[in-house]
Amino acid sequence: MAFKKNEAPAKESKEEKKEVSVIFPEGLMVFPPHERAPDWVHCDLVLNIEKFEKWVAANPDLIQQSEKYGAQIRFVLKSDKADKLYLSVNNYRKES
Fold first, then answer.
1. Farthest CA pair distance, the chain
2. pTM of the full predicted structure?
3. How far apart are CA 72 and CA 65, in angstroms?
4. 10 Å Cβ neighbour count for 91?
5. Among 21, 62, 66, 80, which residue carries the largest CB count within 10 Å?
6. Residue 44 to residues 32, 33, 41, 62: CA-CA distances in angstroms?
């Protein structure tokens, strides 16, 4: 790799995020609010209990323990480039 004079190789910043795969929960779906819904309604969530329980049982590595809330899986509500809402697992982990 060639560098210009007085140019050092770029260092990775601590602020750079690690790439993590997007994990979609099965049985937990998000939809835009009904067209007549009030402004304070941001989305509709639907939980298919049977599918969700199977998905949780198949993914025990996603479960985190919290002193305050107990066993939990964290989710993030996002929108894609077309502004379509979706949920994914919040798999961000602080570096130790």
1. 63
2. 0.70
3. 6
4. 16
5. 62
6. 6, 6, 8, 24
Give the C-alpha separation, 44 to 54, whole Å.
22
- Asked whether residue 16 is domain-assigned, the answer is no
β-strands 70-72, 64-66: how paired? antiparallel
Compute the C-alpha angle 22/90/84, nearest 5°: 60
* DSSP 3-state of 85: strand
- The alpha carbon torsion through 61, 55, 49, 25 (nearest 10 deg) reads 80
Query: Tens digit of pLDDT for each residue in 19-37?
Result: 578 999 999 999 999 999 9
Please give the sequence-ordered ranges of beta strands (E in DSSP) within the chain, or none if there are none.
28-31, 44-47, 64-66, 70-72, 75-79, 85-89
Contact 55, 27 (CB under 8 A): yes
Into how many domains does the chain fold?
1
With a cut of 80, say whether residue 74 has pLDDT above it: yes
Supply the range of the domain harboring residue 78.
28-89
